[in-house]
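Ops channel
N.P.: pipeline sanity check, posting one input/output pair.
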């Protein structure tokens, strides 16, 4: 038995004896136990570190249909978001602040969805579940960037709609091209800085394990492998997420409250219905994202849920919003729907006509 194991056993014996004697440990004994814990030696892992991602606990036969389902979902996700980005990029009429921010949101959805699905599909198909340290840290960066960037982008979209509906005469003066570029840069820059600081703090933490009991690599999953307690990192992560998400919520709540007030005051039915229709799609996306995040928190609070069900809840926010958001754009936004139909007619229809002509000539 190693010296560290012996010390750990002695500390556990002291704690149990203390509880037998009088319930909770005294202050002096707690300090003594903490001092002994600091003296316990550990051997941190050295590079190259290769993690094993536990993923879903399934058999190989169960993995094949799950791979097929995930492949179909990912194909729909790719098709929808790439179509939105392509339409907005190619149609000059859509080069407006609202659609540019929709393009940013679609790119963010692709970023988060691709990262998680690229981890899931090989696991379902082959059972492959190992990942190198650099790739794991990059996955942590992308996952946390997606989770925070969605909130900042939606708050920027809410601000844009607030200016457009509540101050229509000054909209083009306020939302200039320079202001739009600065706003989009700020949306991503804040998130990058917060996540980069988190990873810098995480990089100095020694690790004593390689099994990640999660579906993908997250900061919390890697920190559970740390050799020492990480209170500073935990507090920073909690505070940064809370302040950013709370700030975004306040911006969105204020913007749509003022929009609702303006729509009630307005007498023009057409402008009021158009404003409500535009804001309804944004609010639906925001509510969908927040509900999926709430499901994750709820799943990890309920101990009765099975590990596979808990892991499934953890990936909902990376699958459902990125897949449904483009559909919401296409249904609720007339300009995007019209541009998609126009793009389809100009690219797909001629190919179908040429194929039909070739078939008739051959017969």
């Amino acid at each position: 038995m190693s010296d560290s194991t012996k010390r750990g056993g002695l500390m556990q014996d002291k704690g149990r004896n203390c509880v037998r004697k009088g319930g909770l440990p005294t202050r002096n004994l707690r300090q003594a136990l903490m001092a002994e814990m600091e003296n316990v030696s550990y051997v941190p892992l050295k590079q190259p570190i290769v993690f094993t991602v536990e993923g879903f606990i399934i058999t190989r036969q169960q993995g094949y249909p799950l791979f097929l389902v995930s492949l179909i979902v990912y194909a729909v996700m790719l098709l929808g978001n790439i179509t939105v980005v392509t339409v907005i990029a190619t149609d000059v009429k859509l080069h407006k602040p609202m659609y540019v921010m929709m393009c940013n949101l679609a790119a963010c959805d692709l970023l988060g969805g691709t990262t998680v699905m690229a981890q899931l599909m090989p696991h379902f198909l082959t059972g492959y579940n190992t990942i190198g340290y650099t790739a794991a840290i990059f996955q942590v960066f992308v996952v946390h960037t997606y989770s925070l960037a969605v909130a900042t982008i939606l708050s920027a979209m809410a601000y844009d709609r607030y200016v457009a509906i509540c101050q229509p005469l000054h909209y083009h003066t306020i939302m200039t091209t320079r202001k739009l570029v600065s706003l989009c840069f700020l949306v991503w820059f804040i998130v990058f800085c917060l996540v980069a600081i988190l990873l810098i703090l995480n990089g100095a933490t020694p690790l004593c394990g390689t099994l990640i009991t999660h579906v993908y690599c997250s900061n919390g999953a890697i920190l559970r492998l740390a050799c020492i307690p990480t209170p500073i990192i935990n507090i920073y992560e909690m505070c940064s997420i809370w302040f950013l998400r709370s700030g975004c919520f306040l911006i969105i709540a204020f913007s749509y409250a003022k929009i609702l007030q303006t729509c009630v005051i307005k007498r023009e039915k057409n402008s009021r219905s158009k404003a409500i229709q535009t804001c309804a799609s944004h609010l639906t996306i925001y509510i969908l994202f927040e509900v999926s995040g709430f499901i994750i928190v709820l799943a990890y609070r309920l101990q009765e849920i099975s590990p596979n069900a808990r892991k499934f809840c953890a990936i909902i926010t990376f699958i459902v919003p990125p897949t449904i958001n483009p559909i919401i754009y296409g249904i609720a936004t007339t300009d995007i729907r019209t541009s998609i139909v126009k793009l389809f007619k100009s690219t797909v229809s001629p190919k179908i006509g040429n194929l039909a002509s070739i078939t008739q000539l051959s017969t």
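N.P.: looks fine end to end. The two ends are 84 Å apart (CA to CA).
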